[in-house]
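As the next step, I selected for study one protein, both as residues and as discrete backbone shape codes, as given directly below:
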Amino acid sequence: MFDLLPFKRRSEVPSVFSEMDDLLQKMWYDFPFHNLEEGTNLSWSPRLDVSETDKTLEIVADLPGMEKKDINVSLDGDLLTIKGEKKEVKEKKDKHYHTIERRSGSFYRALRLPVAVESDKIDANFKDGVLTLTLPKSKEAAKKVAQIEVK
């Protein structure tokens, strides 16, 4: 069977599979999440859930390990911005780190809101590393929802 394969010797077959495995390992595990070289400056960005009801928009952001004082939320027109800085873990002298995978540094997320909201009634809560924003829709935006009959 190996006579039909385009390899010079049968001993090269495991080598090809080994090379393929190495390429897949590098693709899935080396970048951008694991085994980063020192000095690599990749920023991080919190994951968001955005949902909508008849009366509100709700945005939930995971910000583990952060404190309320390190988070800034602003609304400029229809552009909602969440930014902050996650402090770096200080290396202790009696510990020898083999790898550090937890991200630190500043982040910036901006969302263009699909509807007008009442900016003076926005509720922002931060608890256990989760930021929850509740943005009440403006009365005009709530009225614009129209049901369209499908024929």
Q: What stands out?
A: The helical segments are 12-30, 139-143. The chain has two domains: 1-30, 48-140. The first strand starts at residue 48 and ends at 52.
